[in-house]
């Protein structure tokens, strides 16, 4: 088997960046060190070699927050748009994602079988919501808005433990690798309040119990302080957004080992699209404006206290391919560049239970690598990381 050596660069070790070479055979890293040999050489002089990056919160089937555009989009078109969304994500160096709502088993299988190019993915299929919750798309006129349900996307609005047991089992049947719930209201939903908690303890306990029985974890869209607490004390693996995180919530997350996936980009993407003229309702804009400053404060609180953090963007609410802007925001609000890269590699791999295979440049790991021209940490700080990506390898194969 051909040995490819990436030589002369600097290797991100998970906490620091040091001079080094990386040797790949087939789809695996077989050696990392200084002065290594191979059959084929890739000159990495002047480059930083990163592990394949993660985004733990994307929506490949969504292409923006414009409701009018969504209502005028043919049913099947988002499946084709997803091809470009996945490619844009992969080309910026993100080789693994969690799709947090929208992609069904067919989308995931198309990537797994090599029919289309994209990051490897874990899919939630659809988000579990209470009636009137963050995934209940009922409008005041009586209509239901997108995404439309179809054979690959079951209805997941449910109330009470027994209804929820059925929904979780249905999602597992439909190929879910992760269960996503909404334990609070949100910004993009028409009739929910981000400050209000959704689902009671017995409901989330049932969800977690059924997910655990299927060998999968639960991620929770949770903005309100109470919604975060209810999710954490009942065993969810990660809190998504965490906008109104309290000191008590931080303590519970640390005690339970719960991750935060902050998605700092999310409200900004909504506001940027509105500024560009997209049709976004005043209700949603008011909520987006209301959460921005609270969002950053919650992130700072969690980071300073030592909560485990993994990178996620909510891309799909806004453009795909701009994912790496999230690292710059994390640095702007308190992380060092190396901490932001760690959150996007090793920590994210651990969250997704993929740490045995991915997240580090180490012998035995899958050969996902990103070559960045110059100093990757400086690019993170300056917001220029995407522009500096020169090559992306997934399973040892160039995909850029």
UniProtKB/TrEMBL annotation:
SUPFAM superfamilies: Composite domain of metallo-dependent hydrolases, Metallo-dependent hydrolases. This is Amidohydrolase family protein. CDD domains: Met_dep_hydrolase_A. Pfam families: Amidohydro_1. Residues 48-397 form the Amidohydrolase-related domain. It comes from the Bacteria. InterPro entries: Amidohydro-rel, Metal-dep_hydrolase_composite, Metal_Hydrolase, Metallo-dep_Hydrolase, OTAase-like. PANTHER family: ALPHA-D-RIBOSE 1-METHYLPHOSPHONATE 5-TRIPHOSPHATE DIPHOSPHATASE. The lineage of its organism: Bacteria, Bacillati, Actinomycetota, Actinomycetes, Pseudonocardiales.
């Amino acid at each position: 088997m051909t040995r490819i050596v990436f030589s002369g660069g600097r290797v991100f070790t998970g906490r620091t960046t040091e001079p080094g070479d990386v040797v790949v055979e087939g789809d695996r890293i077989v050696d990392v060190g200084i002065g290594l040999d191979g059959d084929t050489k890739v000159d990495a002089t002047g480059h930083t070699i990163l592990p394949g990056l993660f985004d733990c919160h994307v929506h490949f089937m969504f292409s923006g927050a414009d409701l009018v555009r969504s209502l005028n989009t043919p049913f099947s078109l988002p499946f084709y748009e997803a091809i470009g969304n996945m490619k844009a994500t992969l080309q910026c160096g993100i080789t693994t994602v969690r799709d947090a709502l929208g992609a069904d088993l067919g989308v995931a299988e198309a990537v797994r079988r090599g029919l289309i190019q994209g990051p490897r993915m874990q899919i939630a299929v659809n988000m579990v919501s209470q009636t009137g919750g963050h995934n209940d798309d009922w409008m005041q006129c009586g209509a239901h808005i997108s995404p439309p349900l179809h054979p690959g996307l079951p209805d997941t609005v449910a109330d009470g433990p027994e209804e929820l047991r059925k929904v979780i089992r249905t999602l597992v049947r439909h190929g879910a690798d992760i269960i996503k719930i909404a334990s609070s209201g949100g910004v993009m939903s028409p009739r929910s309040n981000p400050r209000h908690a959704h689902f009671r303890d017995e409901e989330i306990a049932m969800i977690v119990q059924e997910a655990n029985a299927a060998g999968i974890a639960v991620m929770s869209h949770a903005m309100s302080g109470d919604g975060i607490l209810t999710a954490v004390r009942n065993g969810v693996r990660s809190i998504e957004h965490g906008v109104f995180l309290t000191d008590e919530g931080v303590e519970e997350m640390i005690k339970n080992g719960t991750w935060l996936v902050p998605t700092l980009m999310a409200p900004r993407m909504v506001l940027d699209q509105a500024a560009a003229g997209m049709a976004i309702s005043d209700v949603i804009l008011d909520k987006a404006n209301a959460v921005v400053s609270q969002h950053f404060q919650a992130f700072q609180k969690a980071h300073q206290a030592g909560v485990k953090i993994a990178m996620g963007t909510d891309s799909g609410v806004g453009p795909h391919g701009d994912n790496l802007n999230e690292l710059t925001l994390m640095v702007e609000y308190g992380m060092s560049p190396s901490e932001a890269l760690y959150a996007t590699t090793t920590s994210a791999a651990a969250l997704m239970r993929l740490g045995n295979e991915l997240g580090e440049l180490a012998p035995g790991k899958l050969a996902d690598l990103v070559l960045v021209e110059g100093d990757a940490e400086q690019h993170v700080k300056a917001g220029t990381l995407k522009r500096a990506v020169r090559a992306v390898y997934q399973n040892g194969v160039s995909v850029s």
